[in-house]
Specification:
- With 399 residues, this protein is of the alpha/beta class.
- The chain folds into three domains: 64 residues, Arc Repressor Mutant, subunit A (Orthogonal Bundle), CATH 1.10.10; 147 residues, Nucleotidyltransferase, domain 5; 151 residues, Nucleotidyltransferase, domain 5.
- The protein contains 13 helices and 16 strands.
- The strands form four sheets. It has a five-stranded mixed beta sheet. A five-stranded mixed beta sheet has the order 14-13-12-15-16.
- It comes from Kribbella pratensis.
- This is MarR family transcriptional regulator.
- InterPro entries: ATPase_NBD (IPR043129), HTH_MarR-typ (IPR000835), ROK (IPR000600), ROK_cs (IPR049874), WH-like_DNA-bd_sf (IPR036388), WH_DNA-bd_sf (IPR036390).
Length: 399
């Protein structure tokens, strides 16, 4: 666990989280997964069994020697509340340790309104009031830069927030640990617990939809950069022939997101007559699905741009694998004809085989990712969560 395995709060909560996310596991497998010595696992699990948190289950065959005993959780060990903040609503879910969503809901929200953060605090307080004493903490995902999960100071141009005191205000309102991060980083935290992060320690999570985002995971930890803004690949400047460079929400022009984010695709489709003046992205996807060659060409061109930009990120970071997520993957079959040749052609020979996995998407995944900030606290090797992660681990260990 990258230098933190000696800390008394990390090891018990790490074992609890591992058993909660993966199910019954042997001591040997726990030691291997968490990078702990077998003696440490034996000692800590003995205490967890005595406290009624963990129990011994059936034996399974082992490679020589006596059969291995599996360990499992003896009872429920807590839930996390996840909230995804958007420009017009807040999606909220309650997530069990194994990643299953117990409940979900949505609240109207105007981030530009006076007292918006107080309103967000009231929303989360109401949600927390409906939970029992097993709440481990609250995770919040926002479409912007966050200095750290621990402090939760947010710059989010799409929300109209500049140095917004999201973490401090919400912690005071809710009265529980609150971890805040960029929304794409929260999806990377979910992959750490339930997806490719189980087998790979370095990977990219790339989202396509309203914007283009990227989370960078290196050696099992989210890479944040100097100011918490690493991964803003949507603002890579692109040079495209034919016409003026489109304006971007960041204030610049010609950004990748300005071309292939949702607004960029709609603008292109309206300009080419594929959509009318009030046409939407849903209409563009419908046209492509129905065989409209102009609609399909727009997606293929977007895929080409994404492939070229992503190849540059691959050369910079050298991940083991890339995961594509977001609302835009619903139309991936139309992106792919442009993406795949452009991406592979732009890679150095040693990188041409990097896998790109496209995962199914549901609306709940953003908020589920936010909840994963809480549930992944035992694996916070970079210390991004600071005191908030420590408080979550203490609650896990006391469950």
């Amino acid at each position: 666990m990258s230098g933190q395995s000696s800390r008394s709060d990390v090891v018990p909560s790490g074992i609890v989280t591992l058993l909660g996310t993966r199910g019954p596991t042997s001591r040997t497998a726990i030691a291997r997964s968490l990078g702990l010595s077998p003696a440490t696992v034996t000692q800590v699990t003995k205490d967890l069994i005595a406290r009624g948190i963990v129990e011994e289950l059936e034996s399974v065959p082992s490679n020589g020697g006596r059969p291995a005993r599996l360990l499992g959780l003896a009872s429920r060990t807590g839930v996390a509340l996840g909230a995804k903040v958007t420009a017009d609503h807040v999606a909220v879910v309650t997530v069990e340790l194994d990643g299953s969503v117990r409940s979900s809901g949505s609240h109207d929200f105007d981030p530009a309104a006076a007292g918006a953060l107080d309103r967000l605090g009231r929303i989360l307080t109401e949600e927390v009031a409906g939970l029992d004493d097993l709440l481990l903490g609250v995770g919040v995902g926002v479409p912007g830069s966050v200095d750290s999960q621990a402090s939760g100071i947010v710059d989010a141009p799409t929300l109209g927030w500049r140095a917004a005191q999201v973490g401090p205000i919400l912690r005071q309102a809710v009265g529980t640990p609150v971890l805040v991060d960029n929304d794409v980083n929260t999806l990377a935290a979910a992959e750490r617990l339930y997806g490719i992060g189980r087998e790979h320690s370095s990977y990219l999570v790339v989202t396509i939809g309203r914007g283009i985002g990227c989370a960078i995971v290196v050696d099992g930890g989210i890479y944040r950069g100097g100011n918490g803004g690493a991964g803003e690949i949507g603002h890579i400047p692109m040079w495209c022939t034919g016409g003026e460079q489109p304006p971007c929400t960041c204030g610049s022009t010609g950004c990748l997101e300005a071309y292939i984010g949702a607004a960029g695709l709609i603008r292109t489709a309206r300009g080419r007559g594929v959509l009318g003046p009030r046409g939407t992205l849903t209409g563009l996807l419908r046209a492509a699905t129905n065989g409209d060659e102009d609609a399909r060409a727009i997606y293929a061109e977007a895929g080409d741009l994404l492939g070229r930009a992503l190849a540059g990120v691959i050369h910079t970071v050298d991940p083991e694998v890339v995961v594509l997520l977001g609302e835009g993957v619903d139309g991936w079959e139309f992106w792919q004809p442009g993406f795949e040749p452009s991406f592979r052609r732009s890679l150095l020979p040693a990188r041409k085989g990097v896998p790109v996995m496209v995962e199914p998407w549901t609306e709940d995944q953003w908020a589920r990712g936010a909840a994963s900030l809480v549930l992944a606290s035992p694996f916070d090797s970079a210390g991004n969560g600071g005191e908030q992660s420590r408080l979550v681990r203490a609650r896990m260990g006391a469950s």
